[in-house]
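Let's study a protein:

===
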Amino acid sequence: MKKSIQVVHPILIGMLHGLFWIVVYFFYTYFLGYGSVDTTYVNRFSYFLMPITMVVSYFFIYHLIPKYLLRKKRFLFVLYSIYTMIIATFLIVLSILYGLVLLFEIRPENSTPLTKTLPFIVLGVYFIISMAVAISLVLHNYRFAVDNEDLENKFLHTQLQLKEQELKFLKMQIHPHFLFNSLNTIYGFALKKSEEAPEMILKLSNLLDYILYQIDKPYVLLEDELLHLEDYISLEKMRFRDTLEVHFDHTLLQSNYRIAPMLLIPFVENAFKHGAMIDGVLKVEINGYERDGRLTFEVVNSSKRNETIKGIGLDNIRRRLEMLYKNAYDLEIEEEESYFKTSLSIILNALKEK
């Protein structure tokens, strides 16, 4: 298909050039013979003006403009244009005189076939040359705009692909630590032949299904994300047992919103991964609610000030938020003596399904 377009394109351009010069020829016959009855003389005389008009026009279009004007060598362009106009004027006058002499025999006696004087004929030729140059510049600007838009679209497409690859990489980083701990816990339960092992395997299976098949979607229902969090928390309860106190409240959240998959889990994962036990218990409180047109998700876990949270979690989520919800989110982190708190707020209009 592309090859056929490339073949047709030059042919179409050639046809347009031919059409333009046909129009120019009829312009000359009308311009030179307006009010004259000797159409034969006028038509033949127009032939003498056509070659010099075409040569000068194409010299401007294919040499002076691309070599000097488009390369911003304006002084040289003006200088060579002046030289060209001087030489062109001489050639135009020469062709006019040559035409008058050559066509003298077919000129009727006591008649004036041409109704324009020499200066007007020269100005007419320059008018056509100016029109040809102007059309060429307009077409060049159009091609430049199209090429620039195409280049910009390719650049944006490449950027989008890079963003998508980076997002996939960030998503893949989220769960390795959690999956490793969960498998170890299941292994321990299996050795003890615990009745909780099948339930833990089922919940882990649901999580893996979500991670593997939902992660490639740009958005998921908020309800699915919350169910994913509930399975995650249930697994952590089985793993921590009596050393964990966790409260998860999302009753004030609607489910008809869309959100980037696995956007909330890093906050919860960090709470379990980096939270500190105080008096032998890790406390985690998770709240999701709507307020002032924003979705707010808060995670608070017991912590010790000296145990600064590290790892890929929060850095990961910052980068994802910046790419997905730029200028539509707020992320606050608060660290006190006995607790660590993260609060994410996103404008609901940026999430709600239309």
About this structure: The radius of gyration is 40 Å. DSSP finds nine helices and seven strands in the chain. Residues 78 and 151 are 31 Å apart (CA to CA). Confidence is low (pLDDT under 50) at residues 1-8.
